[in-house]
Amino acid sequence: MNYELDAFLTIVVAVLVLFIGYFFVHKISILKKYNIPEPVAGGLVAAVITFILFKNFNITVNFDAKIQQIFMLMFFTSVGLSASLGKLKEGGKALVLFLGCVIVFVMLQNIVGISLAKVLGLDPLIGLITGSVTLTGGHGTAGAWGTVFEQDHGIQGAVVLGMASATFGLVIGGMMGGPVAKFLIRRFQLAEELVPTTGRNEAPPASETAPFEYPEKTRLITADDAVKTMGMFAICISFAYFMTDFARGQWFELPTFVWALACGVFLRNTLELGFKIEMFDRCIDVFGNASLALFLSMALMSLQLWLLADLAGPLVIILLVQTLVLALYLYFVTFRIMGKSYDAAVLCAGQCGVNLGATPTAIANIQAVTNTYGPSHKAFLIIPLTGAFFVDIVNAVVIQATIGFFG
């Protein structure tokens, strides 16, 4: 029996999932201790419930995919609208170094996947699917490339395999970031936990913070500001849909969210630098954080965990090894290159989402860590720019080159 929920019911369930996540994180000490993001906690509970319904009662629940995509586009649009040239310049050398760490790991991820696939007697392209295609690329990239693998390279079930691998990455990426950062912070005594009475709302003005920093900070906005900001979001998302259709099959074809982000960057800097119009950063931050929470909860509550249960043993081995390799890479490479500081530890939490999940997971990871140990302005500047824009371009080039070699 199959139940289809429309957009409004999907939002209702997503909000309920968020409340469940808040409840569990604040009531179960181990979740709070290891900085598990609230949307991840609530989303996994919902995913387990849908798994039980499917296995025991043959009931599937399908949520509205379009509203989930809209919240995803709103999130990436908010990243673009917050990316002023001044903030890009502020990222400076640290942004370049971190991007280098991520790029190297994208290539390492494919080397590990392809090598293990060969050792286990599988097609090397299956190793690529369980590499950067799904773990760095996420569900969108998995779906797009899975069809190519099935039609052009004869990899049967590539789409299902890709979705299962991306699901694994999304779950582990969300659960791994907090514990990794906590281990590094405590191992090297980089920071102390915030005193609860300090309050999360005690933060610098919105103009002095990066996007998604201090998600619970009170931001006073007016209806006029909200309407103008919604207009900019609508422009960016409409442009993204137009360019997705226009560029289909062309050399400049890109995922829809990349067009939304790029339009946000262009619109922000054109209005700010060209017309000297002050941007409404408080509204952008509020819309971005709300969209992030709802998108992440929707993505996780939509997971079909039975796809993971159907994975063959060799594929599970590859995914587990990929997780271990990332943990070792963060400890021995990223953390040290980024300066063995508190910011470096928070960036490691973010990289768990970038290379083993999705950009929203990365943001949720660093929010969870900074809520416990204090702000990391550098991480909130670098992670959105790296995860939402640069890494997708790099990953597309690496995937295409690898397919050309093994295909």
Report the end-to-end length measured between terminal Cα atoms. 40 Å
Strand fraction equals under 5%
Uncertain regions: pLDDT < 50 for 5+ in a row? none
Biggest β-sheet: strands ordered side by side in the sheet:
1-2
Binned, the helix content reads over 70%
Number of domains: 1
The description of the largest β-sheet is:
2 strands, parallel
Overall 3D geometry? globular
What class would the helix/strand composition place it in?
mainly alpha
Number of strands: 2
Radius of gyration: 20 Å
User: Which sequence of SSEs, written as H and E, runs from N to C?
Assistant: EHHHEHHHHHHHHHHHHH
What is the averaged pLDDT score? 85
Number of helical segments with 4 or more residues: 16
Task: Describe what you observe in this structure.
- The chain is built from 16 helices and two strands.
- With 407 residues, the chain is mainly alpha-helical.
- It has one domain.
- A two-stranded parallel ribbon has the order 1-2.
- The longest helix is centred in the N-terminal third of the chain and has 35 residues.
Identify the notable features of this structure and list them briefly.
407 residues, mainly alpha, globular, transmembrane, symport, cell membrane, amino-acid transport
Mind sketching the topology for me?
Blueprint: E1 2-4, H1 7-27, H2 29-33, H3 38-57, E2 60-62, H4 65-82, H5 85-119, H6 124-133, H7 138-153, H8 158-187, H9 223-246, H10 256-274, H11 281-301, H12 306-309, H13 313-337, H14 342-355, H15 359-373, H16 377-406
Helix pairs in contact: 1-3, 1-11, 3-11, 4-9, 4-10, 4-11, 5-6, 5-13, 5-14, 5-16, 6-8, 6-16, 7-8, 8-13, 8-14, 8-15, 9-10, 11-15, 13-14, 14-15, 14-16, 15-16
